[in-house]
Design goal:
Elements (H helix, E strand, L loop, with lengths): L1 H22 L3 H14 L4 H13 L3 H14 L4 H13 L3 H14 L4 H13 L3 H14 L4 H13 L3 H14 L4 H13 L3 H14 L5 H12 L3 H8 L3
């Protein structure tokens, strides 16, 4: 028992040294400490996770995944490891595996609306709009006023061609948060696509009022104004970009 306690304390010491090196951005040095910790106690989950974090900071995303997997082999419900893997796979543009890792987190924390949102976003990023929508619905079951889930579900409906329902969700989003600039911009895109240029221009203007530095709604509004024959107003916007 004494030897086991000594080993645990020694492993913890090297893990602490690694974290100190990480905070000083000496990532290669920190990995050496984490490796020492793991060598002393291969079951020390924190050292595996912290090594994964350090490798991620060095942009060695595949090595980081391997380290997180080392933690998950010891405990498949290690949240920090699944979260770290999501970030790695996103950095690798592997949204399928990122969504799978996010799915593991929703299995662990099904009562977390943020987990459902994250999984939905990743499914949406890989083009799986229908399954993404189901995840947003789960988030909204937990919180019907969850604006981010309403907005992202609306984006998926736009991609699926259901503009009417998307508009309804965007209006709900804006009723909850009238300063949600992205919802105004998305609403403008739908209205513009339907040829409702006056209404689209108003939506883009609302987005610009909320964030004058955001160029996208201004560019979109220019297109609407040109379609309406209001070229002078479009050129005035161009002069501010």
């Amino acid at each position: 028992m004494i030897c086991t306690l000594c080993m645990a304390e020694e492993a913890d010491y090297y893990d602490w040294k690694g974290l100190k090196s990480c905070s000083a951005k000496n990532y290669s040095g920190s990995i050496a400490y984490f490796d020492q910790s793991i060598e002393i106690d291969p079951t020390y989950i924190d050292a595996w996770v912290h090594k994964g974090d350090a490798l991620k900071a060095m942009k060695d995303y595949n090595g980081s995944v391997d380290s997180y997997l080392g933690a998950l082999q010891k405990d498949n419900k290690t949240r920090a490891a699944w979260s770290g893997m999501i970030e790695d796979y996103v950095a690798l543009n592997d949204y399928r595996r990122a969504a799978e890792a996010a799915g593991k987190l929703t299995e662990i924390d099904p009562s977390s609306k943020e987990r459902w949102l994250t999984e939905g976003n990743l499914l949406q990023m890989k083009g799986d709009y229908e399954n993404a929508s189901k995840r947003y619905e789960r988030a909204l079951n937990l919180d019907p006023r969850y604006r981010d889930a309403l907005y992202r579900r609306a984006l998926g409906l736009i991609a699926l061609g259901d503009n009417a329902e998307a508009l309804s969700l965007l209006d709900k989003t804006l009723a909850i948060d009238p300063k949600y600039k992205m919802a105004y911009n998305a609403k403008g895109l739908i209205l513009e696509a339907e040829g409702r240029y006056e209404s689209a221009s108003e939506a883009y203007e609302n987005a610009s009022l909320i964030d004058p530095a955001w160029s996208q709604p201004k560019i979109n509004n220019m297109q609407c104004l040109q379609a309406l024959g209001r070229t002078d107003e479009a050129m005035m916007i161009l002069s501010t970009l």
